[in-house]
Amino acid sequence: MAGEIVARPDTFPEILAMPTRRAFIGQTAAVLALAVSGRHVSAASHAPATLTARKVSVQLAPDGYPATSIWGYEGRAPGPTIRVLQGERVQRRLVNDLPEPTSVHWHGIRIDNAMDGVSGLTQEAVAPGEAFDYDFVAPDAGTYWYHAHNRSWVQVARGLHGPLIVEEATPPEVDREEILVLDDWLLDPETALIDDSFDQPMMMSHGGRIGNLITTNGRFGLSIPVARHMRLRLRLINASNARIFPLQLAGLRGWTVALDGMPLAAPEPLQDVLVLAPAQRADLIVDVTAEAGETAHLVRIGNDDRPASQVAFPVSGSSAQTPRAAPAPLPPNPGVGIRSLTDARPLRLVMSGGAMGRMDSAFLGGERMGFRELAARGRFWAFNEMAEMTQAPLADLSRGEPVRLEIVNETVFPHAMHLHGMHFREIREGRPVGPMRDTALVAAQETREIGFVADNPGDWLFHCHMLSHAESGMMTWVRVT
Ligand code: C2O
Ligand code: CU
Ligand code: CU
What we know:
Blueprint: H1 18-34, H2 43-46, E1 50-58, E2 68-73, E3 82-85, E4 89-96, E5 104-107, E6 131-137, E7 142-148, H3 152-155, E8 161-167, E9 176-185, H4 201-205, E10 213-216, E11 222-223, E12 226-228, E13 231-238, E14 245-250, E15 252-259, E16 262-269, E17 274-276, E18 281-288, E19 295-301, E20 307-318, E21 345-353, E22 361-364, E23 367-370, H5 371-376, E24 381-383, E25 395-397, E26 401-409, E27 415-419, E28 424-428, E29 431-437, E30 439-442, E31 447-454, E32 458-464, H6 467-471, E33 475-480
Parallel strand pairs: 1-4, 3-8, 9-13, 11-20, 12-20, 21-26, 25-33
Antiparallel strand pairs: 1-2, 4-6, 5-7, 7-8, 9-10, 13-18, 14-17, 14-19, 15-16, 15-18, 19-20, 21-24, 22-23, 26-31, 27-30, 27-32, 28-29, 28-31, 32-33
The structure holds CU-O-CU linkage (C2O) and copper (II) ion (CU) (2 copies).
């Protein structure tokens, strides 16, 4: 990659405040000094037993801008890292100090349905001043996350999300692990306050709410010092409402070892672009190949195809003489997913709507309405002609039943389709392929097929994780009994 790679905030006024970036380096170094190598870095013992959702003021924009009032868990965004060993319980008391009801969803966990955190489906939203106890087992190792699941398109955009890490009993050998939460924020360029036009039709009917300030771990221009030949495990989480992150490595040699928490059968060399859709995660093992004095980068390809630094890794010194051998695969998780499609129940989901789409009409409240009428009610999208979550599920499945679900995207936008409670595999040429996933990016006008075994009883959402799309029609559910 030629030329200098710098951090760019997207369209937020471009102030490349050097003092800020230096301060970031200082902070990161201080945090790193505390971290011991190996597992259970620091979070497990210090993680709070409560998860309080409240308003807080943080410095999101570069120095020189005012602070931003956000909603965060434990006063920060991303919220505290929750870290457990595979098979352990996660217990957290959600305390709602927000001005509106909320709930927490544990994204990607094959969870007990009552703990899934979907307000209106698996629990009542927790009213302001009230609390709710979440208690569940994390059966699969991997990189997961938690986020608000009541009025998600507003609450997640305001900052209510955090990492949930489930460690392997035998983790891969690395020098350091970094959780990198990629996000974007839509801020007023003058005041740095969160733009509260969450229901703006233009965004809802197009790609969703795209921010103008891109951050990693709540900071613009994050920088992490490293040494040459150091091996890192990067746990990437896309926590943004709607932004798709195309990522590349510069000065780093890397392998993808897991997607959506689930290990790949073999590590895949990361040569080209890794596309991370909203809600998706990727575990990378990367070796620092840049020389001391240089800076390696996790690179984001901008809309204009210009590379920008998502995370900078300034290199000083050398941690070893020579590079290491390619990493081994991560140990597989217990659920292997669908193996055969014989007797699989065929389902079909047709997505329509959006700007420049072909949706003439759809149902809302049992009534067929034209696109304009739907738009006037804030509904721009539909699944199988339903512009809202229906009383009846998309499918009533018996426990253990294999399912093949065809997803037909008739819109001119990509959608990140997420299934709660169970993981699926892609079906290509009639066969399940690739790792288990919980979120699939379906490109504009594309048809894809996924397969899963309905092995987790309960009511499970299936929705677009471009969160304003979900709110404006792209949400359905399946029942497993
Ligand atoms: Cu991560 Cu229903 O969501
Ligand atoms: Cu989920
Ligand atoms: Cu969508």
